[in-house]
Specification:
The complex is a heterodimer of chains A (425) and B (287). Chain A has 18 helices and five strands. Chain A is mostly helical and 425 residues long. In chain A, a hairpin with a 3-residue loop joins strand 4 and strand 5. In chain B, helix 2 runs parallel beside helix 7. With 287 residues, chain B is an alpha+beta fold. Helix content of chain B is 27%, strand content 31%. Chain B is globular, with a radius of gyration of 18 Å. Chain B contains seven helices and 16 strands. Classes of the chains: A mainly alpha (425), B alpha+beta (287). The interface between A and B is large, with 40 and 44 residues.
Chain lengths: 425, 287
């Protein structure tokens, strides 16, 4: 799902003369919006008191803040980090991301604001947290706001399967989490935790069918050698290539200035194949990646290669749904190379795994119909031709795309634990 | 199969059939291609044509038209309705009302089947004359509760061909959707091939756009039906009634293919000799 750009006016110029003095000569001094420091103090308390994974008061409060308010927290976070390192510091440069057109700037906090920042930093210290550990906890809070507090930012959402419209929401907390993650560079020693957090959050997004290209690109950009992230990126591009996604985008009028990072289906499938191939090169034992790769190979008309992948996937698959996917996609791959007997065998195997599933019966019926076998075509449908007023058992095919996210709850729990655990110092 | 096999004698039995129980029987002696053709002159149906007035080209080769009837033959209809999660209470009532309009306009010899689709494709009622049962099935329609809630439009059209394939009558599929296909397994091109082998005429009604190249427009144009975009589901009743009216005004034209290849796609051209009229008929048939 494409994200909408959110503009933020961050800083206003200092006009009063009561600021804590800047120490760097020549830097333009700017002040902060009225509520910024107090909001940062409250935010710090919420980060420190939030129970990971709970929809608590911290989540409720932060979910109500505007995009600008959330983004501005990063300015005060930079100042807090400086105070944590040196409580006597009086020099607070504006973080590079927030500089205006005129280059480097210095923040001129009022004495009251400065005192508030110092006492806020003290509260972090009293919990025996480093700035790195505090940021890791902040990532957990904003992830929980996104997940539990509907803080996913403005999204384009399909309506009626044919149009997309902007679903306006409060701040984009996923964007905030990525900015916080950027602050934890390699020297912070939390790369493994962050990679795992990206995996957990993208998995959660897949489970609820939120397709956030920016989040996935950020993950891959930083952790290119992560097999799980490459797999999830492959799933994203596979989804973006679907006729439904493409049709919805084609028939939508986006607000001015908004663009979606979605390419033509052939290119999306090519990208999906590349990501899934890389994922398997990094870890060849992933049944899910092999299933998705095999399916994408069929879609890009590499049927023979798809058959090989899906045969391998069928032997790796352990869960019933995985085995079912391997068989129905194997059926489609065999169809694409015109091996119709093998296709029938694969579909029949799938039917034994989920006897009420519709896909194998429709596929077998269509194969018979295509060969002019009318009786066989009707017989393959079985009870599908019988009148019924009850909803059938779900066919795993219906949840193929969100199935990439089926382990989201466990992964999120683990990611939260990892990020809120202090590393030995 | 696109082609029906029957003799000229059987055709006359078919033409006077008046009750559903009188199913015609077909011999296999000769292959006959059946074409439902709507002939209009400035939008008004032309009713006075005979077999000799029609000109049919099969793959560009002129054919001997054996039969052309404007008789009101019994209809066999599948009503395939989208009940995906986007169908809210108001749309659902419009759907039911549109369905009731179809039932109200059927005759005792006609048969109708009700099929619904979301992720799942379900036959709610098999082919039957209008009975209390099908009215009850229509009144009892509910939106799908399946999650994540897709729309298997292509799969539904395929299943409709199988329902209609059980009956050799004059077949009409009326399909309504408010969106695009999001969850079919079957590929649109393959289902289109199956449709080309049938005698089915498809009328598609949608509140979403039906652009050229879309499955519904392709399937409607290939079968000589129509793809109708309506502004809202409130327009379903008049749309369905119009479809039925139009379908009843069609000629049934038949010929035995001669001097054409025995397999593959056969493009058809249907014209009326010496008259400036519009003819809407299937684009071809598959053997």
């Amino acid at each position: 799902m494409g994200r909408l750009a959110v503009a933020a006016c961050v800083l206003t110029f200092l006009t009063a003369g009561t600021a804590v003095a800047g120490q760097q000569v020549g830097l333009r001094i700017v002040n902060r919006p009225d509520r910024a420091v107090n909001l940062a103090a409250r935010w710090t308390d919420y980060v420190l008191t939030h129970t990971a994974g709970a929809s608590d008061a911290a989540v409720t409060a932060v979910a109500g803040w505007s995009s600008d308010e959330v983004r501005n927290l990063l300015v005060e976070l930079a100042s807090l980090r400086l105070i944590l390192k040196d409580p006597d510091t009086k020099f607070f440069p504006v973080p590079v991301d927030f500089e205006g057109k005129n280059g480097p700037q210095e923040i001129g906090y009022t004495r009251g604001e400065h005192a508030t920042l110092v006492s806020t930093a003290d509260r972090i210290k009293r919990q025996r947290l480093t700035d790195i550990e505090f940021i890791a906890r902040a990532i957990v809070l904003h992830s929980d706001v996104a997940i539990l507090g509907n803080g996913t930012g403005n999204m384009l959402r399909t309506r009626d399967g044919s149009r997309m419209e902007v679903d306006f929401r409060q701040a984009d907390h996923w964007s905030m989490t990525r900015r916080l993650a950027q602050l934890l560079d390699r020297k912070a020693g939390r790369d493994a935790d962050l990679a795992f957090w990206y995996q957990a959050t993208i998995t959660w997004m897949a489970s609820v069918e939120i397709w956030n290209t920016a989040h996935v690109e950020a993950a891959i950009g930083r952790f290119d050698e992560d097999a799980a992230l490459q797999f999830l990126a492959g799933c994203l591009h596979e989804k973006l290539a679907t006729p439904a996604t493409q049709a919805a985008i084609a028939s939508s009028r986006l607000p001015p200035g908004v663009t979606l990072r979605v390419d033509a289906p052939a290119n999306e499938l090519k990208e999906a194949a590349a990501r899934l191939r890389r994922s398997l090169a990094l870890d060849s034992r992933q049944a899910d990646a092999r299933i998705h790769y095999g399916r994408v190979l069929t879609l890009i008309e590499r049927g023979s290669a798809a058959v090989e992948e899906l045969r391998a996937a069928a032997t790796l698959a352990k869960e019933p749904e995985q085995r079912y996917y391997a068989q129905i996609f194997l059926g489609a791959a065999f169809e694409s190379v015109n091996d119709l007997d093998a296709a029938r065998t694969a579909y029949r195997t799938a039917a034994t795994l989920f006897p009420e599933a519709q896909v194998p019966r429709l596929a077998l019926s269509q194969l018979s119909a295509a060969s002019g076998d009318r009786a066989g075509s009707v017989s393959a449908l079985g009870t599908l031709l019988s009148a019924t007023d009850r909803e059938p058992q779900p066919d795993p095919w219906w949840s193929y795309y969100p199935s990439c996210g089926r382990h989201a709850p466990e992964l999120l729990d683990q990611a939260r634990r990892r990020l809120t655990t202090s590393h030995a110092r | 199969m696109t082609t029906l096999r029957f003799t000229a004698g059987i055709v006359s039995v078919l033409a006077i059939a008046s009750v559903a129980a009188q199913q015609p029987t077909f011999s296999t002696r000769r292959e006959t291609v059946r074409v439902d053709a709507l002939v209009t002159d400035r939008g008004r149906p032309v009713r006075d044509l005979r077999a000799g007035d029609f000109e049919v080209l099969d793959s560009g080769v002129p054919q001997q038209v054996e039969f052309a009837s404007f008789e009101e033959l019994p209809l066999t209809i599948v009503l395939a309705l989208d009940v995906s999660t986007s169908i809210d209470a108001e749309r659902l009532e419009h759907l039911r009302d549109g369905g009731r309009a179809v039932l109200e306009n059927l005759r005792p010899a006609d048969q109708v089947s009700l099929l619904t689709f979301a992720d799942a494709v379900l036959v709610r009622e098999r082919l039957t004359p209008v009975t209390a049962r099908i009215r009850t099935a229509l009144d009892g329609l509910q939106p799908s509760r399946q999650s994540p809630g897709g729309t298997a439009l292509v799969d539904a059209c395929f299943l409709a061909t199988r329902v209609l394939d059980e009956d050799p009558g004059r077949s009409l599929l009326i399909v309504f959707t408010d969106g695009v296909d999001t969850s079919s397994w079957l590929r649109a091109s393959r289902v289109l091939d199956v449709v080309k082998r049938s005698n089915l005429v498809v009328y598609a009604v949608s509140t979403a756009a039906l652009p050229k190249g879309s499955f519904l427009r392709d399937v409607a144009e290939t079968t000589g039906g129509d793809a109708i975009q309506i502004r809202s589901s409130a327009a379903l009743r008049p749309a369905f009634v119009r479809i039925l009216d139009e379908f009843r005004l069609r000629y049934l034209v038949s010929f035995s293919p001669a001097n054409v290849r025995s397999t593959g796609w056969h493009p058809l051209t249907v014209r009326v000799k010496d008259r400036k009229v519009d003819v809407k008929a299937r684009a071809g048939y598959m053997r």
